[in-house]
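fyi for ur records
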Amino acid sequence: MNNPVLSWFGIVRLGLVQTGLGAIVVLTTSTLNRVMVVELAMPAILPGALVAIHYALQVFRPAWGHGSDLGARRTPWIVGGMAVLATGGLMASVATAWMTTHPLFGVALAVAAFGLIGVGVGAAGTSLLVLLAKRTDENRRAAAATIVWVMMIAGFIVTTGVAGHLLDPFSPARLVVVSGSVSVAAMILTLVGVWRVEGNTEATVPTRKAPPRQSTFREALVEVWTEPKSRRFAIFVFVSMLAYSAQDLILEPFAGAVFGFTPGETTKLSGIQHGGTLIGMALVPLIGAIYPRSRGNLQIWTIGGCLASAIALLCLAAAAVVGPSWPLRETVFMLGVTNGAYAVAAIGSMMALVGAGGEKREGVRMGLWGAAQALAFGIGGFLGTLASDIARYLLTSPALSYSVVFASEAGLFIVAALMAVWVHRASARSVMRQGSPGNIHAAAIAGGARS
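which gave:
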């Protein structure tokens, strides 16, 4: 069976897809957000609702993963998903430009555009992760996750920098041209990234354990949900990503309200956090290279990343109480490092677990976890701001309200760490039931521990 393991160059090539995906998403969720609110003086709830649509539609990730399972090929879904995403990104810029003359029609088009963005991200992203997981050697999974996610963040940075330069002086027509150029560049990166990477797959080589093509999505989803480790990992992803995303929209307001930071200083603070995240992502494979015995122990990294993130958030809670004398920048940097280490370990665990269940349901499993992540991100930002407002109303003190919210998020990370243990126990029980040495080795991989 022609199922080659990806080389480092192959992993980087697939990372180009994530770069293109990140480039389109950051332009639509960040730049268009600012244009709507600042240049067009639209209410802030409009871009917020549009981004919520983008996340909400990703609950269909399991269905798209099921489609790629039936076809046994991921490349068409990656390319097709990116084409839908690129179309949605261009439509979103056209809709924003249209709002300058016909706001109602522009908003209607924007709703459709962000729907396409959600579909494209879900379809392309799910199949990309499945392909990466299936073709990456066990010992390279943490490093592969780091490479792909760093390349996505690189897409964020390059796009915002270049687009920001090209958009001045601003005009609706210039916005459409820049957005269209980004969409075309993302499609080119995708085609270069997937060209002959997948090769001949299960679709062309018959196997005894091929999934029945008549299997419905409902049957596949129920089958995956009844797998203890798949179900538990989905719950773990939701809770941990809820904690991960809940502080995104309140960190800068917190720095301004409690520490008196200017808008420019809070923007730099976010840059410090993102820099820490990149270092945290690089930390996991780097330590794995120095200490090879830790390379495959993704379970320990996931639990440790959750607990370290909880400690960093508790430090932020303390910073809110102590005030300006607290080393805020250093604390935010630490939060970025711990979040980055957790994220890479969680993604690596996801890649390890995706093929560990019965039948060939990799797409449905990855889709289920991707849907849990998208829901958590969509809900997390909203709940973080809502909790901050409620706490401020009940406690009257902004500092104390932020402290309570950060401490609550730390509690979520502690719960997530316990759930990571819960996931590992499900894998261990599966080993005991199956009993064979081959199955024991496979489950050890799934649990993130080297045999």
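The CA atoms of residues 93 and 176 lie 5 Å apart. thats all i got for now
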